[in-house]
Amino acid sequence: MKENPIRSLPGIPVLLALLAVLLACAYAIFTVVVLGDGGGPRVAGAVLAGAIAAACLAGLYMVEPNQSAVLSLFGKYVGTVHDNGLRWNNPFFSKRKVSLRVRNFESGKLKVNELDGSPIEIAAVVVWKVVDSAEAVFNVDDYESFVHIQSEAALRAMATSYPYDQHEDGQISLRSHPAEISDRLKEHLDERLTSAGVDVLDARISHLAYAPEIAHAMLQRQQANAVVAARARIVAGACGMVEMALAELQKSGVVALDEERKAAMVSNLLVVLCGDRGTQPVVNAGSLY
């Protein structure tokens, strides 16, 4: 079902006209009953006109800015009114107001297993609005509840498709790629909420952490990975510095070293450069050999 915009009459002129008819009917009845001017047919006509005017007052309704009114007649969808202010339509139309304002929804903290099977806690903030009032009213029973439930379901499905941490180059993970994860979550939500006339404007993770039972172990693993990466960088830099030192000594001809002395020098330099504590120098006052 798609939205069908229809026109409505301005409510204030209609209200003034109906009040004028009611006043005229009241005056006609007053002249007949009190002043004796006229007879029964005139009273009957005035009563009938007054009843019709009073019934027409039920056709007045108000539409606020960024709001729409979905009209139906005896269960059949008639159309949707977007005009703001006091409006008037057929008094037999049933009217349901739908807000078109932008809304925020924050899911609760969900406990799910990420791609590698580790339990994590995740929550998201979803920004959404209704773009088709007819679909929101007639395609689902309660569109607000539908948005909440489907948002949590989409968040669970997305969280199980990606690992928490990046283990390979180019791999998308929940923690290291927030922009890509937000786009994926929005795609999941669009697929689920389009049928309800809802457009998702933005969807972002608001909370992401390992579950308490494995948080400490995961922290130790992250620290170990950081230490290994730092050590690898230190060793790579130290090897470059040792290579440069040997090349400069050989180029300048300050000292001639055989292979055994080169190996000893390399060992000493690596100990100095790669050690995490300050080294204590030993002064050799004798011969080099």
Automatic annotation (TrEMBL):
It comes from Luteimonas endophytica. The lineage of its organism: Bacteria, Pseudomonadati, Pseudomonadota, Gammaproteobacteria, Lysobacterales. SMART domains: PHB. It is found in: Membrane. Its main location: membrane. Pfam families: Band_7. Residues 58-222 form the Band domain. The chain crosses the membrane at residues 12-36, 43-63. InterPro entries: Band_7, Band_7/SPFH_dom_sf. The keyword Nucleotide-binding does not apply. This is SPFH domain-containing protein. The keyword Transmembrane applies. Keywords: Membrane, Transmembrane, Transmembrane helix. It is a single-pass membrane protein.
